[in-house]
Design a protein that fits this description.
This protein is an alpha+beta fold and 616 residues long. Helices cover 21% and strands 26% of the residues. It folds into 4 domains: 1-32; 34-49 and 530-602, conserved putative lor/sdh protein from methanococcus maripaludis s2 fold (Beta Barrel); 67-133 and 341-412 and 421-434, no CATH class; 136-155 and 177-301 and 310-336, no CATH class. The protein is built from 8 helices and 31 strands. The strands form 7 sheets. Strands 1, 2, 25, 26, 27, 28, 29, 30 and 31 form a 9-stranded mixed sheet that branches. A 6-stranded antiparallel barrel has the order 3-20-23-22-21-24. Helix 3 packs antiparallel against helix 6.
Length: 616
């Protein structure tokens, strides 16, 4: 008996010491993580640094009384009704689009809007369902029963003398009694343990056969609730073989769990000797000791018969009435969603679903906008002359264009590659009337706010150096390209043509002359970009439609800070319009150690992507 007690004490001390030692190691490791942060003042660039590229562009002096037609890239030209040199009147048809492509696009946009609306409807239904989930902390459990009085002795009997075993007598192998309930297929998240309450001292005891499988949802529940369990494995003859001790770690990640079988990696030979394959991923500690059970702890070899009274069939001293006990009151549907997730896990699921709905609603706005744009394109398919004049240039219909492809290629070979292109080069049709000249320049989508009708621009000749001013008369509604080629511009912006009438110095400029154009803004333009700054884009993390940085708070701990952003320059800098200060200290917001609450340390090293140079 003494040997048994000493053996059990040793096992308990070693097991408990190992667990708490591991826990202390993980806590110390977590405390030792320090993340480098850099002052924003060391990496930011003021918005004024980019003003030259935002407000300056190039232009061309052309005949003011002219009409240029640029092909809608979403359409094909079905027919052309004029030819070069032909005189036209205002209202004459110039060309006609093939509406088949337009109608197909319109149908696709309508279908896409319906799909997104359906996805939003389904996501909202799923959200309402998640809100009805019952947390695992509230799972019903059968009442604990005290069977001590049924066998005629208390927990610590004083009137019974246990027999002493001779010193030279070896203890027989202690085989636990066959379990009353045993899992033969899958250990599911909704379970009723044979014993235990999930603590280290009293883990959940779950009995199963060698063919049983442990579900990942069961492991997720243990990790979420920080509970311990022993998966006790029995043979087909209900003989105890071994157990898996499961103690979830503090930094366990839910996506790391998978279904696993209790026999994975275990081999038992004919002599009963077991071996383990360490190459198999293990989710617990293998042990051949007896289950952590009150019955096993109290069991003594050659125990005398101390039962001196029959068990009370109806009620014990604790007041529990066995006749009123109904197992259905404690039944948990193993295939249901109740009691599967912890309260915190349910909150996380709700937040994720709400974020998904928000992103879908933003996507729906985009799809509806594109649908309205497609509807505008669906007109009669014809373009008409807007002035009286002569056709200076006209392109070919889509079918005819293939026939002249070789001729155009020969002309291209004879062209001067270094000659600046004319605004007419990109136009499909040009009609010129009589009188005057105007300035035509290109502007990106993000800078349209500084090019309103009535705004004044400054012009400067490339050839003569002459300067003058012009007033913007209009901006084309259709872009000439869907990207910008300026190295200082966001490449995802469309490019539009701006028309302006020369108001000062008109005699110093001639048609066909190239000029520099400086946007000075409209009289009512009160915009001010001095409050915004630019920082390296890799220091900003995108989350759906939102952007955030990770910065050090007043306690030198990392915290998430959402920011308001603007345009992207060179693909390397992003404009920050709010949510950041030059005094803030931020870190590279990626990596396993970058988490809210982590300790920070100030550094002067600004991280840069490979093969990229920043100048500060």
């Amino acid at each position: 008996m003494k040997k048994l007690i000493i053996f059990l004490l040793c096992v308990g001390i070693i097991g408990g010491g190992g667990y708490f030692g591991y826990k202390k190691y993980m806590d110390n490791k977590k405390k030792s993580v320090v993340v480098d942060v850099v002052p924003v003042s060391m990496m930011m660039q003021p918005a004024e640094w980019f003003e030259y590229y935002n407000e300056s562009t190039r232009g061309h002096v052309v005949a003011s009384n002219s009409q240029r037609v640029f092909i809608d890239t979403q359409k094909l030209v079905k027919a052309v009704y004029v030819k070069e040199g032909q005189e036209v009147k205002k209202g004459d048809p110039i060309l006609e689009y093939d509406m088949t492509v337009v109608e197909l696009e319109l149908a696709q946009k309508e279908n896409q809007v319906n799909i997104v609306e359906h996805d939003i409807k389904m996501a909202k239904k799923e959200l309402e369902k998640i809100k009805t989930y019952k947390p695992s902390e509230d799972a019903p459990k059968p009442p604990e029963m005290d069977f001590s009085d049924m066998f005629g002795f208390d927990d610590e009997p004083d009137d019974i003398e246990m027999p002493m075993l001779p010193d030279d007598m070896e203890l027989p192998d202690m085989q636990p009694e066959p379990p009353a309930s045993i899992v033969t297929d899958v250990v599911k998240p909704a379970f009723t343990p044979a014993e235990g309450n999930g603590t280290v001292e009293s883990p959940y005891i779950i009995n199963c056969t060698q063919e049983a499988e442990v579900s990942k949802e069961f492991m997720m529940r243990l990790a979420a609730e920080k509970k311990c369990a022993e998966i006790c494995v029995y043979s087909s003859d209900l003989l105890y073989l071994y157990k898996w001790i499961i103690v979830p770690a503090e930094d366990t990640k839910m996506n790391e769990f998978e279904n696993w079988k209790v026999a994975d990696g275990i081999t038992i030979d004919e002599m009963g000797q077991a071996s383990i394959d360490t190459s198999v991923k293990l989710y617990g500690k293998l042990s051949f000791t007896q289950p952590t059970s009150k019955k096993n702890a109290d069991k003594v070899p050659d125990e005398p018969d101390i039962i001196d009274k029959e068990p009370t069939p109806e009620e014990d001293e604790s007041g529990f009435n066995y006749q009123d006990y109904d197992p259905d009151d404690y039944y948990i549907d193993p295939d249901g969603t109740d009691y599967v997730y912890s309260r915190d896990a349910i909150k996380k699921l709700i937040k994720e679903k709400e974020t998904e709905i928000k992103e879908l609603e933003m996507s729906l706005k985009t799809e509806k906008f594109e649908l309205e744009t497609a509807k505008k394109r669906k007109q009669d398919g014809k373009l008409y002359a807007e002035i009286d004049g002569f056709v200076k240039k006209i392109g070919k219909a889509s079918g005819e264009a293939e026939e002249v492809a070789e001729e155009e290629e020969e002309e291209f070979d004879n062209e001067d590659l270094y000659e600046e292109p004319s605004p007419d080069d990109n136009a499909f049709a040009v009609i010129e009337g009589e009188g005057g000249s105007e300035v035509v320049c290109e502007i990106s989508e993000l800078n349209l706010g500084s090019a309103k009708a009535g705004s004044t621009i400054t012009i400067n000749s490339w050839q003569t150096g002459a300067t003058g001013t012009a007033e913007i008369t209009g901006i084309d509604t259709e872009p000439i390209t869907y990207n910008t080629d300026g190295w200082g511009e966001n490449p995802n912006n469309s490019t539009y043509l701006v028309h302006a009438k020369i108001t000062e110095g008109a005699d110093d400029f001639s048609i066909g002359e190239w000029i520099d154009v400086k946007m000075t803004g409209s009289p009512d333009d009160n915009s001010n970009t001095s409050g915004s700054v630019y920082i390296p884009i890799h220091y900003v993390h995108q989350e759906g439609g939102d952007y955030y940085i990770m910065k050090a708070d007043e306690d030198e701990r990392l915290k998430k800070q959402y920011i308001k952003v603007g345009q992207i320059m060179y693909g390397m800098f992003i404009e920050v319009k709010g949510g950041i200060s030059s005094k803030d200290k931020i870190c590279f917001p990626f990596g396993k150690d970058v988490k809210e609450g982590a300790k920070t340390k100030e550094t002067t090293e600004v991280l840069t992507p490979e093969n990229t140079d920043f100048y500060y």
